[in-house]
Amino acid sequence: MVWLLWFSLLHASTGARLRGAWREVTRGDTTAQILDAFKHGALKPFNPSMLQMFPRDALGSWVVLQPEPSNTNEARVLSIYPAPMGSITLFDEKGASRTLALDDFTAPLHGHGRLAFRLTVDRGQTAPILLKFEPSNTISAPERFALQDMDDYLQDDSDWLSFATACFAVMVTMALMALCFAIMLRDMTFAWYTGYMLCYVIVQSIETGFLFHPLGLSWLAGSELLIGTSATALSVSFAALFVGRFCDLPRYAPMLRVPVIALGFSMPLIVLLRCSQIPELMDMARALVNPVLILGALLLLLSALIAGVRGSRQAWFFLLGWTPLLVLTAMTSAQVTGALPSLDWLNDASIGMGAFEAIVLSLGLADRALTMRHDRDNVRVLADRDALTSLLNRRAWTEAANSMLAEAIGEAQPIALLFMDLDHFKILNDRHGHASGDRALMAVAEILSSELRPTDLVGRYGGEEFVAMLHGVNQDQAMQVATRLCRRIHRLDIAVDQKDLLLSASIGLAMRSLGDTLESLVERADQAMYYVKLNGRNHVHAFERRAEMSAMPHRPHSTHGQNR
Fold first, then answer.
1. 333: CB partners within 8 A, 6+ apart
2. How far is Cα 422 from Cα 428, in angstroms, rounded to an integer?
3. DSSP 558
4. pLDDT in the model for residue 507
5. For residue range 33-70, what is the model confidence (pLDDT) as tens digits?
6. Which CATH entry fits the domain spanning 15-154: 1.10.1740.10, 3.40.50.11540, 3.30.1130.10, 2.60.40.2380?
7. Which residue positions in the chain have pLDDT lower than 70?
8. Which end of the chain is flanked by fewer CB atoms within 10 Å, N or C?
9. Can you name the residues that pair with 423 across neighbouring β-strands?
10. How far apart are the C-alpha atoms of 157 and 110, rounded to whole Å?
């Protein structure tokens, strides 16, 4: 409703009332004959404030406007909206004429989004205004007329220019941002969105004349029909490729994926036929473009709807942005047949809805990027975490521990490594089953997570072995932490057999020294743990280079699952 109110206010008529009549041009017509026929009521009457079609495919059409008396003697402006693609000629009582078109850069007064003729004071307040819609090979669109004082016209022109500039700025900005993300993320979905939005901007800027006034791109004059047709076809092509990836059709609507891709590649072929300069091929392109556009728009709408119903979040973003624009396009097409003559704001509404669609689809792309990032994070977590205990697995812990050691080079802060092995774990599995063993591992992992700091690196090294790297902890503090862990695990009261044997842990401690690598640090902690295994289990021992430890046989890492 806010959009409708805005467009209604934008197009509210504040000028003089007009009475109008028209007929098609015939050979031999003179301006005097047309004005005389108007005075005698021989022309077809119409309401100039309502949209009216004027044929232009043969010799064109005559239009006569009769202003009602006015109390002002100021110069006035006759504006014709929407801006026609062809040219229009204005005649005065003496037969002199002025011709205007969207791509005309010589007129002293340029209308933005419309054609504007300045009428001098000496013309007379009630003198009939004679116009000729010149022949054109473009598709005729309905027009309406307004006669305003110069101040009112300039105010309306300024309002339209501000509105259109803001809308086009939003669309171009969203497109360029998407292009940046396409380059950074290497995701073609953003690139297809950029192509679609820029093509839509070109189409609307040509239809409204924005490309010529105020942008002043005079070098495009005379080629607007070809550019507009090509941009329209390419916009559908980019939209099809965008929908295929954005709505994830291979997953949610696989049956429609091939037709959508075929649509995406067929539209450039039509453009090539249109630009071939071969009459037969150009005629074929003209005959194909409108049916393909209509069927393509319906296909994209159906594809997005099916994908949305089947679970695609992004499909609903596309439907929210695309559907209002599609409805406006259908209503504008209906006006060509004479329907909806009072809704003269539909063309400007298409610009506003284009900006709305750009914002909605940009939000959808942002949602898609966040969803993909969340999925990647989940995959990374699954790849880095042990499925049973949710601790870091051996690979992820090794990478994190190497990074911690590399960052600590040159620092005076000590680093301690705890290597833990659960005692009698094989007996627990054999006597009570692997489910009991799994529950024991999860209980130990919970103790490690709760007793150690968030900055400590804790991981499951394999089987019933766990490792923890503690930063900024000296040997005495590390011994206290490890001793507390031993006590907490023993207090779980997990019975290993029926002889009051409880699950416990043997922990080896090694402190980082100069020149240590992760492998050497783990090896020393592992040897200290093995020393605990040979000397009663269920306590902590710090690695010492003593003769008795040096003489102790090295523990191979292949002993997982032995009776410990």
1. none
2. 10
3. G
4. 94
5. 998 999 998 999 999 989 888 888 778 899 999 988 77
6. 2.60.40.2380
7. 1-16, 71-72, 93-96, 107, 139, 381, 410, 498, 545-564
8. N
9. 504
10. 10
